Amino acid sequence: MNPPLASRSAADYRWRIHRNVLIYMAILISLMGAVAWAEQWGLSRNLIGPIFLFSTVMIYALIGISSRTTDQDEYYVAGRRIPAMYNGMATAADWMSAASFISLAGALYLQGFSGNGQQPGGLAYVMGWTGGFCLVALLIAPKLRAMALYTLPDYFDQRYGGRWPRIIAALASVLCSFTYVVAQIYGIGLIASRLTGVQFEIGILLGLGGVLLCSFLGGMRAITWTQVAQYIMLLLAFMIPVSWLAYKQMGTPLAPLAYGQQLAKIAAIEQKLVNDPAEMEVRQVFARRAQTFEDRLKNVDGAMVALRQELEEKIRLLKAQSADYSAIAQARRELLAVPHDAATARDQWTRAMQDNRERAKPLGGMPPHAQAFAGNPEGSPEEVKLFGESRLNFLALVFCLMVGTAGLPHLLTRFYTVSSVAQARTSVAWSLFFIGLLYLSVPALAVMVKFEVLNNLVGSRFEDLPNWMAQWARLDSALLEFSDVNGDRILQLGEIKLGADMVMLATPEMGGMPFVVSGLVAAGGLAAALSTADGLLLTISNALVHDIGPGRENKPKSSEGRVILSKFALLAVAMLAAVVAAFKPAEFLALVSASFSLAAAAFFPGMVLGMVWHKVHRPAVVAGMLAGLGVTLYYMVINAPGFRHFWNLAPSEGLWFGIQPLSAGVFGVPAGFLVMLVLTGLMPSAWVTPRVPLATSSRVNSDYPGL
């Protein structure tokens, strides 16, 4: 008996996917082997980076071009026929953004497991993001898939009716997704400039071309298959250096199972460095520098005049002594760097004072890696307060990341692309599996890199430092900065400052691996940034065109016209995000954490209450969404460094319970829930808009019939 035609068609479709993925893996492994062989035969390192960049981007571009479409179902939700395993792989790539791939290991390196009173600790990201997927699997994804929608704002329109829930949800989608995509494009520029040697701004444009080729023509269908390819790339790029470094240090490639032995060694080295006389000398130098900046801030105008006169006299003496040209040039650069107005001087010197105070602490301001929380619950009142704030910030960030994951529009849209509710649940399980492969290795990588720095770099003579350090320092001093502070020509821990955004990218060079591995890691970071940027840009363009857009009478009548309009909106948003990213507004994790807090406050209360309580109505959800977003944005703004500097507020003044602004969603989410519950209870049931039951609804709105 022959199988039904539909079954044969589905089987053929799956076989074609398996075949194409195997072909891609063969091409990728062949590329790695060819570049490694060429490096052995003398291929210049300056060519390895560009080869990886252009080869991988061209592969993604070919996938994107071959998946081009103008069909509405294909463009928005990939035809709702992506197999669960591949959707889980694409979701993992969407999730493993530049923040996860590049900065998460760096956060664990700098902050340890639990951080200090100001930083919540890198382990909070691992726990919060993983816990968020459990929440998505149990509560969110199956019910959203049952509604057969296109975008997350569609849910608010379908559940609550009226125009305002949809518009607020769409604007919130744009806000949190734009914040997130700026971080990804910043990462693209950083990696592209490191791979090719071009300027950061040109690197942004190179990477942006890859983003547009992946998403512009084919929408969700193209993005899904490029994300599958990008996940395979970033998995290889992450696991190869981690396993290599684990084998080098511990004799086994199974890093997550063996890195505990390095923690004890790190603790012993940290204790030794805390009491090391040379390290104490370095800390004293930074303390004196902090005091110098503090003294200048007492009389900013006078200090500016005195500083200029001092540097001009220094240049005159150097010329009179026929000093080396480099010394004179350095003094001139210092003179040119003197601020030209009091406001700029106050801002620069305040930041310099705080940075030097931080570096004047033991271990260069880093907490002991394995400590539970900062402070001491049985110590002095200050230590007890620090312990409480450290623990509270850790829990607040875990909460924001968890509920933010359950409200991220670009992530939830992925579960519209599978064929059924059961496939949505299975897809989340696959997502957790593919993410877990990487997240279990991130803490291990941070520990091994810290051991490499403490054991091999610290104590080296400046003349013997590896070349990669100077190369990274030239690229951006915020990524790596080192100098002989105490003049002994020996590198102390306090004399080196690593940025969180370079720890993963520099791992191959720290571990002495072939440069082909460095190219692979950079290509993996690029894949992570591209995959997330694709989904975010599509979410923003869909929100602007599909969910807000022109009025019903002005929208294109055909689905093809609406898709074309979405494509041009995507292009405009991508260019705007590139301009913002070029200003390097903040580190990855700060931008990403802010977007999670915004998503949590905007979407989570209304989405969850709408699914579990039929009495929640439109006025309640509109007020609740505005209240949650308002509280979150207010807390972020009043605690932003620029705002606090403008009003001459102390860094800790204005914090509620000592919680840092990146976890502002911990206040916005309860505010949203409270407003929705109170208004639902106070307003009569006549306000409730009757809707089609969520489990069986398949209609979005009259603008888009046939959904």
Strand line-up across the major sheet = 1-2
Average predicted confidence as pLDDT: 82
Class derived from helix and strand content: mainly alpha
Q: Cα distance, first to last residue?
A: 35 Å
Number of helices: 28
Query: How many E strands?
Result: 2
The SSE string, one letter per element, is: HHHHHHHHHHHHHHHHHHHHHEEHHHHHHH
State Rg.
27 Å
User: Helical residue percent?
Assistant: over 70%
Segments where pLDDT lies below 50 for 5+ residues? Answer: 692-707
What general outline do the C-alpha atoms trace?
A: globular
Largest sheet: 2 strands, antiparallel
Residue share in β-strands: under 5%
Structure write-up:
The longest helix is centred in the first third of the chain and has 36 residues, at 5-40. The relative contact order is 0.17. α4 (84-95) packs across α19, α8 packs parallel to α26 (618-638) and α14 (300-320) packs antiparallel against α15. Helices cover 71% and strands 1% of the residues. It has 28 helices and two strands.
